[in-house]
Design brief:
5 strands; alpha/beta
Length: about 120
């Protein structure tokens, strides 16, 4: 069954890389992109992804705030969230690993990303 992933990152190249990288393996995923936390929340009004890949460092609405708004909504609170970020300090690692289903640093290997996504979705 094809799974729907929402990739939220203010860098469109990251969305492109995730989409193209995962499509090389198989057609396991449909990738939806959002370039801001605000766009993510708007998309969630009409789309329910199986998993969200969420950047932390975004202008206006950070990944942390976007996470809080998603988890505070009864319709979205059970969507697994994986932080996919260039932020590598210990505070971000600890908080991201605790709050989200996983914490993945950029740059990432697409094979590792797929394995980690598959593991989360198989739970």
């Amino acid at each position: 069954m094809v799974k729907k992933l929402l990739v939220v990152d203010d860098n469109p190249d990251v969305i492109f890389s995730v989409r193209n990288g995962l499509e090389k393996f198989k057609k396991d995923y449909t990738i939806i992109g959002a370039e801001s936390g605000k766009e993510c929340l708007e998309l969630l009004e009409t789309n329910t992804p199986d998993l969200i890949l969420l950047d932390i460092m975004m202008p206006e609405l950070s990944g942390w705030k976007t996470f809080d708004l998603i988890k505070g909504n009864d319709s979205w609170k059970n969507i697994p969230i994986v932080f996919l970020t260039a932020r590598t300090d210990n505070v971000a690692k600890n908080a991201g690993g605790f709050l989200g289903e996983d914490y993945i640093e950029k740059p990432f290997e697409i094979k590792d990303l797929k394995e980690r996504i598959d593991k989360i979705l198989s739970r």
